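Q: My labmate handed me this sequence with no annotations at all. I'd like to see what the chain might look like in three dimensions before we decide whether it's worth expressing. Could you predict it?
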Amino acid sequence: MKPRHSREIRAVLPKKGFKKAENDHTYFFLHVDGKKTGVHTKVSHGSLEYGNSLLSLMAKRLCLTNGQLDKLLGCKIEGPEYVGILRSGGHLRSAPPPPGSAAGANLSPE
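A: Here is what I predict for the chain of 110 residues:
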């Protein structure tokens, strides 16, 4: 996996649907449909280079393989595709159909 600097990771995650939460550490929580999910990771404040061991830990926290994380950080996987990966892996529930949509409408004759 390609090493990444923490500043690069901090710049990419918000583009994928993550919101930053500052504390003693910098956390990024994934938000889907305006709601905070349990999917999150911690990123260093400093200009730290993340090697394979830290990136592997981050991949696990983000419910991805190492290869998928590399693609996510390299902008080859966009936010909606990432959410699809999480949903298909059972890490996020599928969104309910919007009210009035064909999937949510009563289609039986009265």
